[in-house]
Write a structure and sequence with these properties.
The chain has helices at residues 2-19, 73-86, 120-141, 211-227, 245-266, 271-275, 281-284, 289-314, and strands spanning 28-31, 34-37, 55-60, 63-67, 92-96, 116-118, 155-156, 160-164, 167-174, 181-186, 191-200, 232-238. By secondary structure, it is an alpha/beta fold. A hairpin with a 6-residue loop joins β9 (167-174) and β10 (181-186). The relative contact order is 0.11.
Length: 315
């Protein structure tokens, strides 16, 4: 009986954090009138409900600009409540989706009464893949997703400097993590929202990655940090930084991953042999490194094999 009671209490303690579906979002002030919600450096689970992403907002003189909306309707609603407590009485003037991965746009419903913007390719990706992404997150996180429906951005954004509600923002259109990745630079405070082009203290994800394009994008983002009044970096995942170290960490992972895939293909290894290769010491303790490496082998190794085969045929 005591053992059964212990098991019951243990089960309750595991389930309890999700029982009220509270993400525990805390708006962290990262610069004057600039805030971020920092997620966990984990995979999607029933326990975290998809709270593994960074989102944020900028309080402009005439309203609020929201950058990404999280992984569910519940997340978006709780995010909006936190915004309202800080930007009292100010309207949402623009919500931006940095790219089309679900943890960055499935909270859009909570902001559906305000203008939505994204790069054209991101809009297309959300429209095409949004429902499949939502179904997958239902399987991974369960009732945290209850009531969540896909709301796609209605406005196409382009690269350049714009003024929104009295705040000057630079929109930086890049790619590599996906086919279209938008970074947002706040000229007033030197705050850079990098989206998933930059991970900090977490292994990057690669389901739609073009590594060469991604590396070029990182060069451009690092140039922004050198050539402007840069002060704060908000990565797509991981801790806020006040230097460009997360850009360099992301680059190091991608370069190692790219070289590892190419070397393995040239050596004639099969996929199981590539999966069995150990992580280098510099990445061994990086959160979710092992699981992201396994996924990346599936994403990237077939193309490396084709590249090696093509080079062998030419010679």
């Amino acid at each position: 009986m005591k053992r059964l009671l212990f098991v019951a209490l243990l089960a309750f303690s595991v389930a309890a954090p999700a029982a009220d579906f509270d993400y525990g979002l805390v708006a962290r002030k990262v610069a004057k009138d600039v805030y971020a919600f920092v997620g966990r450096t984990e995979d999607f689970t029933m326990a975290n409900g998809g709270n593994i992403v960074n989102s944020g907002f900028i309080v402009a003189p005439k309203g609020v600009v929201v950058i990404d909306t999280g992984s569910s309707l519940r997340y978006g609603q709780q995010m909006r409540s936190a915004i309202a407590a800080i930007a009292v009485g100010k309207p949402i003037v623009l919500t931006i989706n940095t790219h089309h991965h679900p943890d960055h746009f499935l909270g859009n419903q909570a902001f559906a009464d305000a203008p939505f913007g994204a790069l054209p390719e991101t809009r297309q990706g959300i429209a095409a893949d949004g429902n499949a992404f939502a179904e997958n997150l239902f399987r991974l996180t369960g009732d945290w997703m209850k009531g969540t429906e896909v709301v796609a951005p209605t406005q196409s954004l382009i690269a350049g400097t714009i003024e929104i509600a009295g705040r000057k923002l630079r929109l930086i259109a890049l790619g590599g993590h996906t086919g279209a990745d938008l970074a947002v630079y706040d000229e007033t405070t030197g705050s850079l929202f990098a989206g998933d082009l930059v991970f900090n203290g977490r292994a990057p994800t690669t389901p739609h990655a073009d590594v060469a394009t991604w590396l070029a994008a990182l060069e451009k983002l690092e140039a922004v940090t050198r050539e402007t009044g840069f002060a704060t970096l908000v990565p797509g995942h991981g801790e806020i930084s006040h230097d460009a170290a997360p850009i360099r960490q992301t680059r190091a992972w991608l370069m190692w991953l790219q070289n590892s895939m190419r070397e393995s293909a040239r050596a004639g290894l099969d996929m199981n042999e590539v999966l069995a290769r150990p992580l280098p010491p510099e990445f061994a303790d990086l959160p979710v490194a092992a699981s992201e490496y396994r996924r990346s082998v599936g994403h990237l190794f077939p193309a490396a094999e084709q590249e090696a085969l093509g080079n062998a045929t030419l010679h």
